[in-house]
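Task 17 of the worksheet. Students: predict the tertiary structure of the chain below and write it out as C-alpha cells. Keep your answer in the requested format; marks are given for formatting as well as content.
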Amino acid sequence: MSFLHVFWIDLTIVFQRASTLSFELKNHYICTKSIDSMLKNFFLITTLVALFTGCSNDNIQLPDVFVDQYVYLNNPSNINLQSPGGWAYENGGIKGIIIYRISMDEFKAYERSCPHIAPNLCSVLHVEKGITVNCECDNKTFLLATGEPLDGASHGLKEYRAYLINESTLRIVN
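Model answer:
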C-alpha cells in the first residue's frame, strides 16, 4: 500500500469523524460548521499537494545490477579511449555503459539508461559531440565529464567505478 493511499484513508477517517461531531454537538453548530469547512479545505489542499508532488517521473531510481567487467583499451573497438576526451559504449549494466577518458589515468563509467526515467525502449543515453549525453525520451542533457544534469533532470548519471589495472586494461565495477 503506497504512502499516498494510506494518507488518503487517514484523511477520510478524520473527515468522517469531524462530520459526526458536527451532528452530535447541535448547540455548537456555528463552531463545528467552521471546523468542518476548515477540514474540507485542509483535505482538498493536502490531496492536491500529494497528487502534484508525489507522482513525478523524476522520482525514479534505476535498479542496481551487478557490474564487474574488463575493458581492453587495445581492442580496436575502444580506439577512442586511447586519449583523454575519448569515449566508447560498452555492454553491461541495464542499457549499456558509457566510458569516458578524463586523463591518461582517470576514467568515468556511466549507466546508459536515463537516470530519471524508468527503463523502457526510449530511455537510452547517446553521447553528443563528445561533450554531453542526451536522453532519447525527453532530450534531457548531462555533462559527460561529470555526469551532472544540465537542463532540469533531478538525477545525475548513474556512475560505476572505473580504474586502470594496467596500461591496457580498465575494470568497471559497482
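Marker's comment: The helical segments are 3-24, 29-54. The chain is about 30% helix and 25% strand.
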